[in-house]
Amino acid sequence: MTHIPCAKPRGGLVAQAARTRRSNYAYARGPRGCAATRQRAPDGKTDQETTVPKSRVRSKAVYTPPPRSAKAQVSPRWLVPAMLGSLLIGLAWISLFYITGGTNTAQSAIGSWNLVIGFGFIITGVALATKWR
Questions:
Q1: Which SS3 state, helix, strand or coil, does residue 46 take?
Q2: Helix axes 113-130, 79-100, angle to 10 degrees
Q3: Residues 86 and 126 reside in one and the same domain
Q4: What's the confidence (pLDDT) of residue 30?
Q5: Where a domain ends, among 49, 64, 93?
Q6: pLDDT of amino acid 123
Q7: Can you give the pLDDT at residue 72?
Q8: I need a labelling partner for 127 at 20 to 30 A (CA). Which of 43, 85, 111, 116 fits?
Q9: Who contacts 97 (Cβ-Cβ below 8 Å, separation ≥6)?
Q10: Residue range 53-63, pLDDT digits in tens
């Protein structure tokens, strides 16, 4: 293999990789790290159409949104009062348990299960909130 001298020697890691031919960069460059020569058109400009073929344009499918439902969904009238009532009852149950220290006659019999009852009301309120439209 004969060595073709460059007009200007290149330095740095990229040129070193090109000289050792361990990367694809070496094939994009000319021999031994020199700049690749481009063909010139008669008017002096670079003629890329003859060296690089034009890529084909792929046709893409036109996006069609799904059809909208004819009638807008409305939540039932009881949903919002039930949701707010459940959230507030759960909050009041847990607050009352902590404020009174569990000495209230209704809450003293079930002990720490008061927290489960209060959080049960709150979780029910959150579940109803997901159905609200």
A1: strand
A2: 160
A3: yes
A4: 53
A5: 49
A6: 98
A7: 76
A8: 111
A9: 104, 107, 114, 115, 118
A10: 778 887 888 88
Domains of the chain: total: 2
Say what percent of the chain tops pLDDT 70.
62
Task: Give the integer Cα–Cα distance in Å for 17 and 25.
Answer: 8
Whether 54 is covered by a domain: the verdict is no
Q: Quick one: tokens of 101?
A: 């220290």
Average pLDDT of the chain to the nearest whole number? 76
Torsion, Cα 21 27 31 33, to 10 degrees, reads -60
CA distance linking residue 116 with residue 90, whole number of Å? 10
Of 31, 36, 9, 4, residue with least CA distance to 18: 31
Query: What helix, strand, coil percent values describe the chain, rounded to 5?
Result: 45, 0, 50
Q: What was the pLDDT predicted at 26? A: 45
Q: What are 4's two structure tokens?
A: 């073709």
Which of 84, 86, 79 is CA-nearest to residue 124? 86
Could you tell me if residue 57 is inside a domain? Answer: no
- The yes-or-no verdict on residue 15 having pLDDT over 80 is no
Report helix, strand or coil for 40.
strand
State which residues form the domain around 25: 13-49
